[in-house]
Amino acid sequence: DSRRDSLFSDTMRLSSALLCLFLLTAEVTRSTGSSKCIARNFGYDSVVCECNSTYCDSLSSVTLPPLGRYSSYVSSMVGSRLEAGQGQVQVNGTATLRLTLVPYQKYQKIRGFGGAMTDAAAINILSLSAGAQDQLLRQYFSPEGIGYTVVRVPMASCDFSTHLYTYADTPGDYDLDTFTLAPEDFHMKIPLLQRAQALSSRPLSLLASAWSAPAWLKTNGALIGKGSLKGQPGGKEHKTWARYYIRFLEAYAKYNLTFWAVTTGNEPSAGRMTNYSFQALGFTPEEQRDWVALDLGPALHASSYPHTHILILDDNRLLLPYWAKVVLNDVHAGRWIHGVAVHWYMDSFVPAEISLGVTHHLYPEYYLFGTEACTGWSPLDRGVKLGSWQRAEQYAHDIIEDLNHYVVGWTDWNLALDHTGGPNWVKNFVDSPVIVDAQRDVFYKQPTFYSVAHFSKFLLEGSQRVGVSSSQKTELEHCAFIRPDGSVVLIILNRSSSEIQFEVWDPSVGYIPSTAPAHSLLTLAWNRQ
């Protein structure tokens, strides 16, 4: 009996010790925030990471090591997803390829990164269970997520809605007495934005864009197709359309959601096309200039939101610098405007230096901001591709190119879509960094999710781009920033099929030896003091 009691006592002590070890290990895992991707392959060149109501891979908060060491984070076609590592800064350099930090070359400061809370995004997020919804929002907005601080919000319907509507569909209502938000705002977008804000450690920068004015204010009497505002800038239709913006800001403010900026309207060039298939409002640059000068600018200034920024264009960058010249050369319009919003579609048709670079050099007091991008939009490469690394490289290439040409932020399109790339009332299906499978109550984080994360997670608001020089011609694409706390972030894209060895020289710290795997995205970060 005594031996049995002794054995029982030893077993209990061992069980207690194992329990303590388990709890300690669990606590360490939580504190480091290191949880692995559950990879799924759908037949493309890489994988997605599957998340459910109880589990999702995450990086947690990023804390840099002390001076003399550096952190690295790599994602790659072969399956790495923000894989963290550390290394020692070296006294001497040995690599043939050297990237040299040039901290005295200072450029623009970062505003933020984000995505759009469309009707479709909200429908997909809300199709999940409460636990999975929370996981998805955390991935984007919480400290253990990827640091989104910008959310673009369509004013009324767009193609990623299930039907056509505006907030004032009663003909002749120039005083907007019947103005009201839609069920999509009340029941979907507003609650989700409130939840996102509650999860975020920083205030969200909300950005509003309208696709179309009410049909009765337009020359074609319809929300779609070729049509612009009736009358002339300064007239009753144009003033009503400006007042519509104010009413929208007032309506959202009742729910403690205030907007950092509004754009002058989504893709005004689309509304100049014959038989355009979904919501659009046409403006020439001259018409946009005069509407801002006579109507929108004064209306916003006289409202309760005089500090809300106005961004012009909200269209493809190939329209620059011409569009900016027409609008910003006018002192009456320019006084109300803060920035120029660009979309990424058709970027390959015009070099960034000719469009973004020239615009910045002509008008350095106005910032450039990316407001829409997605893959899967081209008829030649349509819809969702679960696990496409090629699309992740397209994102990273565009972001690096934009950042190296004075853009201060980059906004993805839909935050979440279903496996078809919708819903979309006009069947204009595209891809998204998060794809929802409501039947299984899971969502997939695409390679593009991690592509944006290499920027959004590390480039905090106020981070300033600095110069980088290369010792020789290289296939590596890169950009460098000094963050508000003085630390450095260097982001490197290798789109080649070969591993590339290189080193980074920071004159105030030393040499950082590194390797960019084939088809990879690498973020290096280190303290300078």
From TrEMBL:
In this protein, which residues make up the domain named Glycosyl hydrolase family 30 beta sandwich? 462-524
Which Gene Ontology molecular-function terms are recorded?
galactosylceramidase activity; glucosylceramidase activity; glucosyltransferase activity; signaling receptor binding; steryl-beta-glucosidase activity
- Glycosyl hydrolase family 30 TIM-barrel domain spans which residues? 110-459
Q: Where in the cell is it found?
A: Lysosome membrane
Give the principal location in a single coarse category: membrane
Say which domain of life the source belongs to: Eukaryota
**Gene Ontology cellular component annotations, sorted alphabetically:** lysosomal membrane
Q: Which reaction does it catalyse?
A: cholesteryl 3-beta-D-glucoside + H2O = cholesterol + D-glucose; beta-D-glucosyl-(1<->1)-N-octadecanoylsphing-4-enine + cholesterol = cholesteryl 3-beta-D-glucoside + N-octadecanoylsphing-4-enine; beta-D-glucosyl-N-(9Z-octadecenoyl)-sphing-4E-enine + cholesterol = N-(9Z-octadecenoyl)-sphing-4-enine + cholesteryl 3-beta-D-glucoside; beta-D-glucosyl-(1<->1')-N-(15Z-tetracosenoyl)-sphing-4-enine + cholesterol = N-(15Z-tetracosenoyl)-sphing-4-enine + cholesteryl 3-beta-D-glucoside
- Is Hydrolase there in the keyword field? yes
Q: What is its EC number?
A: 3.2.1.45
Q: In which pathway does it act?
A: Steroid metabolism; cholesterol metabolism; Lipid metabolism; Sphingolipid metabolism
Question: What is the protein's membrane topology class?
Answer: Peripheral membrane protein
Give the UniProt keywords, A-Z. Glycosidase, Hydrolase, Lipid metabolism, Signal, Sphingolipid metabolism
Query: Signal peptide position in this chain?
Result: 1-33
Q: Which family does it belong to?
A: Belongs to the glycosyl hydrolase 30 family.
Q: What is this protein called?
A: Glucosylceramidase
Organism encoding this protein: Mola mola (Ocean sunfish)
Q: What is the lineage of its organism?
A: Eukaryota, Metazoa, Chordata, Craniata, Vertebrata
